[in-house]
Design goal:
Length: 282
Amino acid sequence: MKFTVFAVMAAITWNLAQGPKQSPAAHKKAVTQQAQPNPSPVTVVIDNAQRGEPAQAAKPESPSGDTSPEWALVIVGIVTFLVIGWQSLETRRSADAVKESVPHQKTAADAAFLNAQALINFERPWVMIQIERIPNKAGKATPTFLAKVFNYGKGPAHVTECSKVTIDFCRNPKIDLPIPPIYTPQDNWRRRFLAPKDSFPLEIINPWDEDVKAKKYNLAFGDQPINLMEFVLVAYGKIEYSDGMSNKTYSTAFCFMHENVRFSEMGGYLIPDGPSVYNEYC
């Protein structure tokens, strides 16, 4: 009995496996074509079980949202959002820190520049004019004055340009001298080397020279006569030099007035005077 039931089930299974593989629509069309033409209505009964028509496939269901992979994506999204927010916050903090540090950096840069400039000024040459008073050998109160170019700095200097010492007369050098100054260049001046703490003579200034006195008289007795006692002698000029290593050029302007009012020092002295532009150095 059991063997018979088993055989029947096997036969049904084999029949299902050997059934037509075509779709239900195609199967119905084939059955219709095989039917005899008859105007009267014909009822066709199709046994799906016998014909082996495949059962209708189950419709896919939408995800319910409780599966593990979907929860993992949600967690990854939350973590990514938190990381991006943290990075944005740190970026803003870094930008604020940089913005706050800019004034301090500028201050530090200015301090470094001033220190470097101070070091350069400490080591650079400083060329100035020295005035040496030379007494009259005969004992007269008519001394002369020697203008010397002296290097006070710690570095050597190369004197590239040097004007003549201009002699002029005026009442008040601070007011009467022309601005800007007018300098007369030296004829055939050659570049000269000047070691630190060394000097060389530039020119003799002699207030008692006949040409100097003639110039004074011409000014005093010109179109507008002026008392000779109101005139003072002024000597001025300008030198330019470099340190020999860089392209930077330094300059020193000088202006001296002959002071002859102290009887204890007959012949007087040359003292710095004139407008500031006549005594600039850099």
